[in-house]
Amino acid sequence: MIEIRPFQPNQTEAVVALWDACDLIRPWNDPRRDVERKLRVDPELFLVAAEEELVLGSVMAGYEGHRGWINYLAVDPSRRRQGLGTRLMDEAERLLAERGCPKINLQIRSENADVIAFYGALGYRPDDVVSLGKRLIDD
Predict the structure, then answer these.
(1) pLDDT at residue 48, as a whole number
(2) What's phi and psi for 93, nearest 5 deg?
(3) What is the per-residue pLDDT for 132?
(4) 135 φ, ψ to 5°?
(5) What is the CB neighbour count within 10 angstroms for residue 17?
(6) Is 118 within 8 Å of 106 (Cβ atoms)?
(7) What is this structure's pTM?
(8) What confidence score (pLDDT) does residue 51 get?
C-alpha cells in the first residue's frame, strides 16, 4: 500500500535519486542543501509517497503567509499515471488550506508540456506574471 507521509531525513538519498530520475536537478541547485533547508522550515510540508521503505514520489510545499508554493513534485517514472502525483498534490493542498493559504503558485519550465497538462487537469491556470529570481547563496 502506498502512503503519503512526511519526509524523513533517512530518505534523503532516495529522494535525490528520484529527483534525478525525474530531471528536476539543476547544476545551480544542490538538492541535498534544498532538503536541509526545507527541514528547517515547515518540514511537515515535505511529503513522500512511499510503499514500505521505497520512495515513489515527493512534494515540497511552503507558505509564507501570503501564497503557497509547490516545489519538487516528482513521481517515479515507472509509477506515473497511477494517481500518485494527484494524491501528493491533494495532500499538499489540504495542508496549505489548513494554514489559511488562499492561493498556490508553482513554476514549470515552459517546454514541459506534460507537466503543464498535469497541473491544468488539477485546476491550475497560467497567471499573467513574469517569474524573476535572484540567487542569495550559490550552491
Answers:
(1) 98
(2) -65, -40
(3) 87
(4) -75, 130
(5) 14
(6) no
(7) 0.92
(8) 95
User: Cell digits for 37?
Assistant: 533547508
The residues of the chain scoring below 50 in pLDDT are none
For residue 53, give the C-alpha cell: 521503505
How far apart (Å, rounded) are the C-alpha atoms in residues 82 and 18?
17
Q: How many CA atoms lie within 13 A of 123 on its CB side?
A: 6
| Residues sharing a CB contact under 8 Å with residue 76, sequence separation 6 or more, in sequence order | 18, 21, 22, 55, 56, 57, 84
Burial class (CB in 10 A: 0-12, 13-18, 19+), 12: middle
b/e 73-96 (16+ beta carbons within 10 angstroms → b): bbbbeebbeeebbebbbebbbebb
- Which residue matches cell numbers 503519503? 4
Q: Which three cell numbers stand for residue 105?
A: 503558485
Q: How far apart are CA 107 and CA 109, in angstroms?
A: 7
What CA–CA distance (Å, rounded) separates 16 from 114? 21
- Which residues, 6+ apart, have CB-to-CB distance to 99 below 8 Å? 63, 68
Which position has the grid cell 502512503? Answer: 3
